[in-house]
Amino acid sequence: MIIEHPLLGPRDAAEFVYLGDAAMIDRPDGMTVDDTGMHDYMYLRDNPAGDIRELWYHEQGDRSWLVVTRNTITHEITKVELARDVARRSGRSR
Amino acid sequence: MSQPNRIAGGQIDDKHALSFRWNGRNLTGYAGDTLASALLANGIRLVGRSFKYHRPRGIFSSGSEEPNALVQLREGAAQEPNTRATMVELFDGLVATSQNHRGALEWDLLAINDLISPLLSAGFYYKTFMWPKAFWEKLYEPVIRSAAGLGRLSELADPDIYDHGFLHCDLLVIGAGPAGLTAARAAARAGCRVILADEDFRMGGRLNAETHAVADMPGAEWASATCAELASMPNVRMMPRTTIYGAFDHGIYGGIERKTDHLVDSAGKPRQVLWRIMSKRALLCAGATERSIAFANNDRPGVMLAGGVRSYVNRYGVAPGQQVAVFTNNSDGLRTAADLEAKGIAVSAVIDARKGDAVIDTSGRKGLRSLRLNDGRKISADCLAVSGGWSPNVNLTCHHRGRPVWNDGIMGFVPAGDLPPGLSVAGAANGTMTLASVIAEAHDAAKMIACDLGHARGAGKAPTSSDETYEASAIWHVGGSQARAWVDLQNDVTTKDIKQSMEEGFQAVEHVKRYTTLGMATDQGKTSNTLGIAIMAAASGNAIPDTGTTVYRPPYTPVSIGAFAGRSRGKDFRPFRLTPSHEWALANGADFVETGMWLRAQWFKRPGEAGWRDSVDREVAMTRASVGICDVTTLGKIDIQGRDAAEFLNRVYSNPFLKLPVGKVRYGLMLREDGIVYDDGTCARLAETHYVMTTTTANAGTVFRKLEFARQCLWPDLDVHLISTTDGWAQFAVAGPNSRALLSKVVDSMDLSNEAFPFMACSECRVFGGTPARLFRISFSGELAYEIAVPARYGHAMMGALMQVGEEFNAVPYGTEALGVMRIEKGHAAGNELNGQTTAHMLGLGGMVSRKKDSIGSKLSERPEMIRDDGLRLVGFRPVDRTQMLSAGAHFLEKGAPADMAHDQGWMTSVAYSPELGHSIGIGYLKRGGERFGETVRAYSPVRNQDIMVEICSPHHIDPEGERQRG
Amino acid sequence: MADIKLTAATLSAVGDIDIAGNRIIIRDDLSLVSVATPLGGEDALKKTLTAAFGLNIPAATLSSTAKGMRAVSMAPDAMLLIFAHATPDAEMHVRAKLGGAGYTTDQTDSMLAIEVSGPATMAAMERICPLDLQHGSFGKNASGRTVMEHMAATIIALGDAHFLLLTASSSAKSFLHALEKSYRNVIS
């Protein structure tokens, strides 16, 4: 696999570590969320046949967490973003 | 030494003779030969025995599709079975033997299998040898095992070395025949970075084997001129002897380059190199493979593919027979007769199936002698050139689960539209079967690719060439004889086997493959698949497209396991990480243990010590009595800086961190988001915005990864920065009642009194007159203890210096085993306790998880099952009979309770012998353990056959109040 | 015990390696200091860095150089300064000059710098480096972090077939072995 790093260009998958669904970014606040909300964040994942947004970590590289949009049927990667940008866009801050 | 079948011409160098040994005979060939062509030149037709029936077999083809001529190449440890003689480039001193026979090749004892062939038909191993039942294990299976298989391993370690590597290109051209050469030339001239790979040692493909003309010169000459042009271009990498074996994701191709296989000795260089080729685009120019026709006894030595016959005649200067007959179902086969006659070789008959003529049987026990035709004629021939049409080499187009489609025009499967992204196909691999159209198609394809990649100009014009017609017909199988007609020569699959499989209900193409083994083994059915499918279609009455194909998977041709292993053998299996005091430890009797990639000293043996326990007991006792020194550099160290560092730590540790003052260290407990304990360590505040976190050795990398996740994904606007300094600081634990006295002679002008530098204090300092250092008053052993860190470059000197200063205190170096004993004595949890199922409550640390803040894992750690009062708790154990040794992994049972899961009370996680207490101790998880000090339970270990009574106690076996470490 | 002085151990004791005219040189004369950019402090760091060292903040794949100092991008908000400095106080030196405009960490002891050059260098690097170093794809001063033989590595182009490699100091011996093996495997 090749991941087109937004800052560094195409990089071999061997440099990356895979985490999973990019929904992991949307962590609820533990002080305000109810049990169900935290449970769903922790355990519920979609398993689509098609595009999925997932987290990859450039461990043997610039240590960026990336959000990679990948088609689970064809393995085509259509979009790669810095996870930090995605997090900020979805309203996460401090 | 004469080569009876050698004829003039071809691309061999008859000035350069090469001697080789075949089955003990000394023979001669020429540079440019393959082992197969040299054997044929020497008149050797019988080269092996078939897989199942041990039928005599000869050379069938001239390429990587060869099903028959599998030989054992080289001798001793370097011996390689199942080597295709057609792919072995002849070298001086080559040694090869035939395989798959018992006794001499000519008189194979297992040829009896051919006589009992009705017992060995399709699926025989599912049906026969079933009775009497007891015979299977004792008789049938051993006999079948010893008789089965292709070739023999040397059973010695492979003496060769292998390597791997990475290549990058704009365009990878796979195959260097007319299509590949044309395409590579056009793309390279346009300015693309091109890699041209071909499995052959001589590029040119069929141009070397045919008598076509390109650009008004003989095809082979054009091929070598084009190769010379390409080789001179800086943007082209020529890779002969390189098989592209697989198409992987995103333009990555696997290639295996045979570097020294054509040399008698690899001279210490890698024999083969496995390449990971990253391409922007790829063009498959892999050509096509000829197939046979099924007729009775079509497997005798001398029956060959017509294209192979032309290769031997035109490229290698070898006559495969003195009297050659041609049997064809298409227009291509007829060229064979013309080429043979041009070389003065007698052609005894041309049998064209399209005219209704057919070969219905052959004779000749160890080599073809004559043919019988359907009109009753008997023809003498020692070689029959058969052409059943050509099958495009679509394999790589299917490696992303693409399925080829049937093309009636060429009677073959051609690539469909579902190719791996970035891959195109040109030439015969695409079903384009005549030379001029192949060249035109390849040129256009390359030009278009170059244009796509921003190189619109310069590709030039396609070369002109001769052309021919190609008409295929659907004649697959000739009946009229009761004898067996072979479809798959390598697996001994006949037309009868396929029909039988269909009759017995195994009708889908994948079922037929597995029931009959059609298309399996080293050749993966390159010459037989299409024929087999056609026969299936005929038997079922379905059309060929409705019958379908099996799935093509990598590798295209076999790749040595050694090549996949590459350098990762023996000590090079993975890198080692060495501690700064490694050399010192080596010189001082250390025995090392691998912990992850680290090599750590586990104990330091002294003269007179009989076993490891002697060393470990001494190290523990001396540390607790005076002072011990241990290299703890391997613990992960993460430098954390930023205005929001305190806030960040407060969210990743479950205990509070906001109020940790500068100059203090705090124990930190890290949970996973699901509330399970993940890691623990200490965190020191060196300055207002500067912390140093330690992690366990095992989790150093993954904790860093999780912290980066929290920093970038969860709280992207906290000002916090991470960098690993694990390797940067050599860190030593200095533990024991004399540790303060020792260190006061090490650090420069610093008050180490309990008042000035109390338990959990930290400070930057200097040692030995100026070397920068960091001092932490933390204890893993439970003793008065410190950890002192110096820049790693001074680690070696520091270890020596600490020991030198420590001489007056009788200081002792200790290893990981003593470290482990002391932490069990102290009841500290480590890897055995933190097994991914452990809650803070189980460790007795439930109170540490703050409810006043949100931290990772805090919410889900409150789930009822994880905080139940009657749950497991970490407690200590000692044997009631103090002379008994405890076993880790033992399960706890109430006295008298049955030993089953329903009565399971918990388990022992860690045990050690405590030199201080003089008996075995343990820690482990026990239901309601915290309330049960003083009770006794059974510790039951069926694995170790142990069942003893143990007393429950505090996990802090030594100094439960922690007075020593605070003193 | 005032007579004890700690001396630095170094792999350069192993000696520089010459393989058929290709050179592997341990550069333990170089100091390495990482500088992280405070959130929102990009402009301030940029100005200070220029004033202090004449350096620009390096682009993600291109190092910047000035007055014997090189800055290499290590992460979107972190760079590494590489410069010759004899004493173990390189970080203090940089910290003093930056005056709080960046967070500094000494990495001199965390990583080993190795310089490689010679005619077989491109062929040797092909065997261990997954990055495309050929044909102008990785020109002078280009930089990248990657993995070689399971070990993290940073590679910087000093010139044609001439690179500076940074690798973790604890596994540096394994790295040197891998590097040497690559050269030995490709020279004739």
Summary tags:
heterotrimer; A: 94 residues; alpha+beta; Folate-binding fold; 4-stranded antiparallel beta sheet; two-stranded antiparallel sheet; 2 helices; 17% helix; globular; B: 967 residues; Ubiquitin-like (UB roll); FAD/NAD(P)-binding domain; 6 domains; 7-stranded mixed beta sheet; 6-stranded mixed beta sheet; 22 helices; 49 strands
Could you characterize what this model shows?
The complex is a heterotrimer of chains A (94), B (967) and C (188). With 94 residues, chain A is of the alpha+beta class. Chain A has one domain: Folate-binding superfamily (Folate-binding fold). Helices cover 17% and strands 35% of the residues of chain A. Chain A is built from two helices and six strands, in the order βββαβββα. Chain A has a four-stranded antiparallel β-sheet with strand order 3-4-5-6. In chain A, strand 5 and strand 6 form a beta hairpin. Helix content of chain B is 21%, strand content 27%. In chain B, strands 8, 9, 12, 13, 14, 15 and 27 form a seven-stranded mixed β-sheet that branches. Chain B has a six-stranded mixed β-sheet with strand order 40-41-42-39-33-43. Chain B has a six-stranded antiparallel β-sheet with strand order 45-48-49-44-47-46, with helices on one face. Chain B is elongated. Chain B has six domains: 103 residues, Ubiquitin-like (UB roll) (Roll), CATH 3.10.20; 167 residues, FAD/NAD(P)-binding domain (3-Layer(bba) Sandwich), CATH 3.50.50.60; 181 residues, FAD/NAD(P)-binding domain (3-Layer(bba) Sandwich); 149 residues, Probable tRNA modification gtpase trme, domain 1 (Gyrase A, domain 2, 2-Layer Sandwich), CATH 3.30.1360; 90 residues, Alpha-Beta Plaits (2-Layer Sandwich), CATH 3.30.70; 103 residues, Beta Barrel (Elongation Factor Tu (Ef-tu), domain 3), CATH 2.40.30.110. Chain B is an alpha+beta fold and 967 residues long. Chain B has 22 helices and 49 strands. Chain C is an alpha+beta fold and 188 residues long. Chain C has two domains: 93 residues, Probable tRNA modification gtpase trme, domain 1 (Gyrase A, domain 2); 77 residues, Alpha-Beta Plaits (2-Layer Sandwich). Helix content of chain C is 23%, strand content 35%. In chain C, strands 1-2-8-11-10-9 form a six-stranded antiparallel β-sheet, covered by helices on one side. In chain C, strands 4-5-6-3-7 form a five-stranded antiparallel β-sheet, with helices on one face. The longest helix of chain C is centred in the C-terminal third of the chain and has 15 residues. Chain C is globular, with a radius of gyration of 17 Å. The mean pLDDT of chain C is 94. The chains are: A alpha+beta (94), B alpha+beta (967), C alpha+beta (188). Chains in contact: A-B, A-C, B-C. The interface between A and C is medium-sized, with 14 and 12 residues.
